[in-house]
Amino acid sequence: MKLTRMLPASCMLLSLMIPQALLAQKPTGSESPSYYNIGGVLSNNESESHFATVIAHLNFDQQYVPRGTTYYDKTIRIDKNPIKTALNVCKHLISRRVYAVVVSHEPTGDLSPAAVSYTSGFYQIPVIGISSREAAFSDKNIHVSFLRTVPPYYHQADVWLEILSHFGYTKVIIIHSSDTDGRAVLGRFQTTSQTNYDDIDVRATVESIVEFEPKLDSFSSYLMDMKTAQSRVYLLYASQEDAYVIFRDAAIHNMTEYGHIWIVTEQALSANNTPTGIIGLKLNNAENETDHIKDAIYILASAIKEMTVNETITEAPKDCDDSGVIWESGKRLFGYLKTRNIRGETGQVAFDDNGDRMYAEYDVINVHEKHSFVKVGSFHYDSEKRKMRLKINDSSITWPGNTGKKPEGIMIPTHLKVLTIEEKPFVYARKLLDDEIDCADDEVVCPHFNITNGNEQEYCCKGYCIDLLKALAQRINFTYDLALSPDGQFGHYQLKNHTTGIGTTVKKEWNGLIGELVAERADLIVAPLTINPERAEFIEFSKPFKYQGITILEKKPSRSSTLVSFLQPFSNTLWILVMVSVHVVALVLYLLDRFSPFGRFKLSTTDGTEEDALNLSSAIWFAWGVLLNSGIGEGTPRSFSARVLGMVWAGFAMIIVASYTANLAAFLVLERPKTKLTGINDARLRNTMENLTCATVKGSSVDMYFRRQVELSNMYRTMEANNYDTAEQAIQDVKDGKLMAFIWDSSRLEYEASKDCELVTAGELFGRSGYGVGLQKGSPWTDAVTLAILDFHESGFMESLDKEWIFHGNVQQCEQFEKTPNTLGLKNMAGVFILVGAGIVGGIGLIIIEVVYKKHQIKKQKKMEIARHAADKWRGTIEKRKTLRASLAMQRQYNVGLNSVSKSVQSQNAEKSRYPILPPLPRTPERAWPKDKEYIVNRKNNSSGAGKPPPRYMPTYATDVSHLIV
């Protein structure tokens, strides 16, 4: 009674115990026992007798039992009452110091082996099961020292995977009960599939999971849901009673006929109504208890022998009343047992970390007509390769429908749900107007279901991808319903909160088109969907229907036409040298002509009409006139040396003018602005300190590309804050000048650049990839779509789509526009007009200065004229006085008398000789006064008149008479 009170507490403690494989050194001065009692909890007399016989023979096998060591058997009968079984273990086995217990399985008492495991495990006594196959015994938190020579039921999932790989089935439906073993089968299948099958193309994936409660009455509702799936391969784990109900209902719904494949476990295979064509498994030696007893005993002896060599084995516990005793040697002995790998009566015997049997061999059973079971293959251990191998004779298999032809394993639907997304020029989406009933002939109805508010709006779609979808549907014969992406995204792998009964958990999920395909809410994606590793891990891609890359879109920079654009053909240094050369040549021309003997003096034979010698002003005028190709009317060099220099200067002017004209056309007429950026490696993009904004679309393939590239991490961190929700917004901002560089798929950006010649793509393509049609993992349409696309490439259909939707002929127009000369406008030549205007203003300014200067000169001349008149009047007065004095003197002489005539004449002659009358000096033009010419003319006229003599006294001119002015 004391033990029954202790069992529940021991079961709680078992969950805290973790078995440890300890290999300690053998202590000095201590020895292992010389005899070992082996306990047995068996199901019948035959097993007990065989147990004793095997141990008796073991004592004479020196390979396993060294000299001085003896094994004894201690057996009891297993009871279907677990409490009674536990009491018997304490009373008849543990009290006799058993070092291990071999336990069988009573047919009607499922918990009897568990009771033995709980009781023995509490004291760390190893328990070897020879018939217990439930998944619960694999839990080492409960069954801490339990291992078994038979595999658990859920290990049949390993054989399932080998059978699926053999037949090439990649998509299955798993049907299992909701108990521990059923869930263990599903977990084992999924884990082993991902671990051992690296090739995604041949890996079996679970399309649907059907979980049912045991002891069911009907399975029809589950079967109706299974009919809508593509897979027709069913993996069944169920008890014999549940399998009977499932097979019954499946036959009613014609799901056991040709085209359906059933692969079942041992329990389901034993149902009374298994249909023809089913493939099942049967464990070899599953019911041969005697062979398992022998393998268990020899495994135990092998472990004890090795343990005695390495360490000391202490005596086993002998009293169940002492709850504080834990047998440490038992824990280490259990670790030695798990490392065994021997060839036994039931095949190759080895154990995994959970103590479960590995390398168990199965027969592959096929149900033929009249409910006959035929072995068509085996799953056995290959001693050479040291692993399990599957061998099946395909020709001997009868498939459902009583046929020898292997079914395809999938039901290919002919009506598909296709998703797309608006992305010009691949897909144009137009909202259906209220007064419109149907879309146009070249359009397809593509409703948009908004997942945010649950509204659905009708749209009409056309474009590159729509024409491709029509061609695919016609070529590989399917119908479809087209819809737009619910959230308007291509697909991004992001964290998402999920509310469960326990709380809120964070899980990564796909959104957008990829999310719809992964969740199997769509069959096909026909859109400009970039093929990349992140997406290919979750969905299938066809071969690319268009190859492209990533490029940069920017707005063409405005032409650098300024007010001095006409000066661009020459550099500033060259303009300065030309200006200096003009004046240097003019100076040298003047000096050569000045000092040349043939240029300084006039020839004696020349007449008075010959030009004057070249002065400095004329030399400068000549130099500028030759340079500007204007006519030279006067002031040309006269000497031979100066004229040689003039010819050289004319040649220089011709070259300068011709070069200027040619470069002016290149700069102003044929000039086209270049891009601001050189490509993705441009330092302005890589340098985050530069004030240059660039962006892409959030969660797109381009965004994933930048996140993958380590060398672009700095650039991506800058871009991330500027990224847009859609490409349309980004392209519009580039046109408006709000965004300097938009990084996106080359096909779309080339389309935009061809449509708007003000936009340009910069640099070479990078991140090359392609657009592909997206399909579900393991989709039966993958090969058909790929072959159709390859055929479209060969036939030129894809090229025709490019011409029709992407280029529109605009590329040629833009190229032609680039090659034609640019029409000059006021902006280009404004500087020339401003130069002319400046010349006019300068001329007006100079004429004003000349007028002012002339007025000042006239005033000065008037003052000089007044001074001349005053001087003339003074001279006239003086002459009159002289004349009067002479007349008075003559009168006095006349009055004196005639006698004094001769004296007076002599006196007068003397006076004339004293004051001779000089002829007038010749007046040069430089020294003539303004009215001298008029005076001379009057003088001539008077002299030629009617004998009128000129006046006797003429006024003379003084060079300076300013001192006479009062």
From TrEMBL:
GO molecular function, one term: ligand-gated monoatomic ion channel activity
Topology versus the membrane: Multi-pass membrane protein
Annotated site residues (Interaction with the cone snail toxin Con-ikot-ikot) in this chain: R707
GO BP: chemical synaptic transmission; ionotropic glutamate receptor signaling pathway; regulation of membrane potential
Cysteines joined through disulfide linkages: C757-C814
Matches recorded under InterPro entries: ANF_lig-bd_rcpt, CaM-bd_C0_NMDA_rcpt_NR1, Glu/Gly-bd, Iono_Glu_rcpt_met, Ionotropic_Glu_rcpt, Iontro_rcpt_C, NMDA1-like_ligand-bd, NMDA1-like_N
Sequence ranges assigned to domain Ionotropic glutamate receptor L-glutamate and glycine-binding in this UniProt record: 448-519
Keyword field contains Cell inner membrane: no
Transmembrane residue ranges: 574-592, 644-670, 829-853
Main function: NMDA receptor subtype of glutamate-gated ion channels with high calcium permeability and voltage-dependent sensitivity to magnesium. Mediated by glycine. This protein plays a key role in synaptic plasticity, synaptogenesis, excitotoxicity, memory acquisition and learning. It mediates neuronal functions in glutamate neurotransmission. Is involved in the cell surface targeting of NMDA receptors. Plays a role in associative learning and in long-term memory consolidation.
Subunit and interaction comment: Forms a heteromeric NMDA channel with Nmdar2.
UniProt xrefs under PANTHER family: IONOTROPIC GLUTAMATE RECEPTOR
Name under which the protein is recorded: Glutamate [NMDA] receptor subunit 1
Source organism of the structure: Anopheles gambiae (African malaria mosquito)
Gene (name only): 1281696
